[in-house]
Amino acid sequence: CVFWDTWTQEWSSDGCEVVETNDKSSTRCRCNHLTNFAVLMDINGVFKEKTTSPLDYITAIGESISIACLTLAIIIFYWVRTLRRDFRFVIHRNLCANLLIAEILLLVGMDATTNSDLCLSIAVFIHFFFLCAFSWMLVEGLYLYFLITKVSTIDVRNILGLKQWQYYAIGYGLPTLVVAITLGATNTNAYSTSPYCWLSYENGAIWAFAGPVAAIIFINLVFLTVAISVSFKSRRNAAEKKEKKHNFRWIYGTISLTFILGITWVFGFLFFGQGSLIFAYIFTILNSLQGLFIFITFCVINKKVRKDLRRQFITSQVCQYFNFRYLLR
C-alpha cells in the first residue's frame, strides 16, 4: 500500500498499511492522509512471506558469523605487536575494518526505507565502505607485486615501490573520489530508497560500484599473475626460497579473496537488479562466508600469525605473573 509522493517523485508507504489481503482477488489498505493511492504488486512472486523469513534467518546468522570473524581478525592484527608493525597486516586490518563496517550497515540498514534521508545516508556509506574494501584488496595486490618483483628496498617512508601515504590514498582516496563524483553528478538521484537503500539500477548508477569493482578485480589479477610468473622464474638461495613459499601462500590467499568478493557481488548485482529469490540466497550465503574466509585464510592457517599470536600470549602471561609477584611484595 503506497501513495505517490509528488515531492520526491516516488511511491512511498509512509502512513499506509495493509489491513487485509486476499491472494486471489483484493488488498485492503488504510492510510492516515489523502492523496493518490495504489497497491504495488510483486509480479515475479519471488518474495512471498513464507520464503522471506528463511532468507532473513540466513542473513542474520550468516552476517553475524561474518561480523564476528572480521572483528576477531582485526583484534588479532592489532593486539599482536609484530603484526601491528608489519605493513602486510596493516593492509589486512584496513580491508577487514572496511568490510566489517559495510557488513554491519548491510545487515541493519539496507531495509531502512521508511526514512528517506536515513536510507540515502546508509546507501552512500554502504557504497563507500564496500569500495574501500575492494580498494584495499587492490592495495594488497599492488603490495604483493612490489614485494615479489623487489622494485625497491623497504624503509619507513617508502614501502616497496610506494610511500605509505600513497597506499592509503589508493585505499581511501579512490572510493572517496568515486562517491563524490556520483553524488555531484546525480544530486543524490544515484541512490535509491526503494526497495533497498542502495544504488539505483534504473538510471545506471549501479555502474558507480560495478565499474570500479570490475576494474579492481581485473587489475589485481594482472598484478598477481605477473608476481607469480616473476617468482617462478627467479633463482634464489635457501632463505629466500622460504620467503618465496610464504609469499605464494599470501598470493593464493589474495587471489581466493579476490574471487570470493568478486563472485559474491556478481550475484549481488543480479539479486538487486532482478529481485530473484535464488540470487538472493546465493548472494546472502556468499556474503556471509567472506568474514569466515578471511579469518581462516589470514589467521587460522597462517603460520606467522599463529606463531606470533602464541608468542604474544606467552609474553603477556609471563608479564602478568611477574606483575602479580611484584604486587604481593
TrEMBL record:
Which species is this record about? Daphnia pulex
MF terms in GO: G protein-coupled receptor activity
Q: Where's it mainly located? A: membrane
PANTHER family, A to Z: ADHESION G-PROTEIN COUPLED RECEPTOR (PTHR12011), FI21270P1-RELATED (PTHR12011:SF347)
Q: Which family does it belong to?
A: Belongs to the G-protein coupled receptor 2 family. Adhesion G-protein coupled receptor (ADGR) subfamily.
Protein name as catalogued: G-protein coupled receptors family 2 profile 2 domain-containing protein
| Membrane spanning stretches | 57-79, 91-110, 122-146, 167-185, 205-230, 250-272, 278-301
Keywords (alphabetical) are:
Calcium, Cell membrane, Disulfide bond, EGF-like domain, Glycoprotein, Membrane, Repeat, Signal, Transmembrane, Transmembrane helix
All copies of the GAIN-B domain together span 1-47
Instruction: Output the InterPro entries linked to this UniProt entry.
Output: GAIN_B, GAIN_dom_sf, GPCR_2-like_7TM, GPCR_2_secretin-like, GPS
Q: Name one GO cellular component term.
A: plasma membrane
Q: How does it sit in the membrane?
A: Multi-pass membrane protein
